[in-house]
What we know:
A: alpha/beta; seven-stranded parallel β-sheet; five-stranded parallel β-sheet; binds adenosine monophosphate
Amino acid sequence: MQDVVCCLFAQSGFDRAAQGILGAGRRLADGLGGKLVAVTIGMANDALNGAVAAVADTVIVADHAPLAEYNPETCLTALAALGKRLQPGAVLLGNDTYSQELAPRLAHRLGGSAAGDAVEVAVADAHLRVTRGVYGGKATAVIELRRSPGVVWVRARAMAPAEADGRPAGQIEKPALDLAADERVKVIARHVEAKEGVRLEEARLIVSGGRGLGGPEPFGQLQALADAIGAQMAASRAACDAGWVPPSWQVGQTGKKVAPELYLAIAISGASQHIMGIADSKVICAINRDPDAPIFKHCRFGLVEDYQKVIGPLREKLSHRT
Amino acid sequence: MNIIVCVKQILDPEIPVRDFRVDGAKREAERGSANLVTNIFCENALETALQFREAQGGQITAISCGPEGAEDVLRKALALKADEAALVVNDVASNPDPLFVAKALAAAIGKRGAFDVVMVGREAGDWGAGQTGGLLAEELGVPCISFVESLEPGSTAGTVKVKRQTETGWEVIESTTPLVVTITNHEHNVPRIPKTRDVMQSFRKPLVKWTLAELGIDPATANSYYGVAELFIPRKETQCEFVAGDTLEEKIEGFARRVSDVMRSM
Ligand SMILES: Cc1cc2nc3c(=O)[nH]c(=O)nc-3n(C[C@H](O)[C@H](O)[C@H](O)COP(=O)(O)OP(=O)(O)OC[C@H]3O[C@@H](n4cnc5c(N)ncnc54)[C@H](O)[C@@H]3O)c2cc1C
Ligand SMILES: Nc1ncnc2c1ncn2[C@@H]1O[C@H](COP(=O)(O)O)[C@@H](O)[C@H]1O
């Protein structure tokens, strides 16, 4: 019998990502015949712990003072200590940057193996198997983890939440942890970008721009279009690397993973690494002057035109319609 | 400051989807006519190191683990003015797992001597593991900070200050050295292009090679952390309807109608 531990950051609350991680954890725990243990890390968050207890068999509250503000070293020390105590068969984390940086090091400390960007986690021949995109999304691989525990960071929002099954609420525990803040590493400033509206990962409409826009100014036009229809803004890596928009706008393999109802790609070629971040969109459409641009292979509909001739009139037409 | 930059040679990640094939039995990508290149995030890491050296002075050593042919990515690093280069020759395991690579790199770093900062890419554009930096830090017993976009000296000797990207913005972190940082792309670390003259000269610079045996690494452990059980190309096709019309106005009207149809069905 092997338990599954899900690691959640309290500051994010019971968001879609947390629900996805727990859903994946529940199914895996049921498959392994073990318990689902959730660890909530950071500032005390009773609402979160209560919601998590509805899905998990045990909730371990790690709101000890040194964990209130995220520090990679301190957080890792805490998770490793809990992991050694709990001896799980699998540890699941989300695909936020903190989870990504912790996963391999946690696996190392627990003598296990890590893998990331999982779209599926299964068990075969007593090993965890992780399905993920590789080669920039051009191929899919199934990775067999050969040590235990398997520490896996999953595409949290792409995972189905756990189904309500009428199980009794889990125990909420706060174990003693002998923990001191790491002396070597200190976070001296933390900036949270004030973005209006919902976060990109949860946006239902996204307007996204690429290198073909040619500079930062056209992003202003795209913003006006986005505002007219209530969409969030995103960009390709090339546009971010050029400094036209902030890095947090980047969508793709190494950017955000989005899943809107509609993703409108403007002057983006559609490299496989970009597609990796948008493949879960319901409808993708594009404006590109090159009819052979790979983006069109992923589009429900497209317009082959110079974006400069299109954006203004399109905004006008759409603001009348909505 | 003594900076180590780890560089990995990979199959050109920009090859178009239609030219990409895998050998499902070997569970590897087919090289075909594609080039082998330096992983882009390793180039971002080297660029970050070069800028640090320009501002603060220091020494840059490029290290790679791979087959003999991986010498190319080290020559390129030398052409960009890395001071030294070392190759851990692995001509046995074609796709070693990240723990194996981290152990090999840690052994090479140990053999080379004292260091202050190890820079790696946030992930490799082939298998996308994103693990080598973290595992290397564990092997070396030092802190690790990920998704770093820039690095400068810290407030006291023996520290560095980094700016790194997070889910919702950024953080500035100060850490004691030695440490490992994983570098992400940013407008200020777009890799420079080596001059032709420097490329020529890179072939005259010394480059050390160590075998796995010399570093005490057992090739039989190349996939004891993980292995690839299956590799295939996913099938997904969407039929794109190109919006037509006699005039630009008609086309935009047609596009707008489809957009609002989707919005209405939301
Ligand atoms: C390891 C790795 C990770 C990566 N991660 C990401 C990632 O997370 N996200 C990401 O986006 N990329 C990522 N990339 C980069 C990716 O491979 C592409 O280089 C990048 O997505 C290209 O951006 P783009 O489409 O904006 O630019 P380009 O490929 O240059 O495309 C520009 C497009 O604009 C069109 N265009 C030009 N002018 C006009 C006009 N006037 N009107 C209309 N259309 C016009 C052109 O026809 C072209 O299709 C990654 C690459 C690697 C190797
Ligand atoms: N074989 C290798 N040789 C040198 N550096 C490597 C190697 N594999 C990975 N790295 C480093 O680790 C980073 C992340 O790679 P990965 O963990 O494989 O995604 C790369 O950008 C390199 O800096």
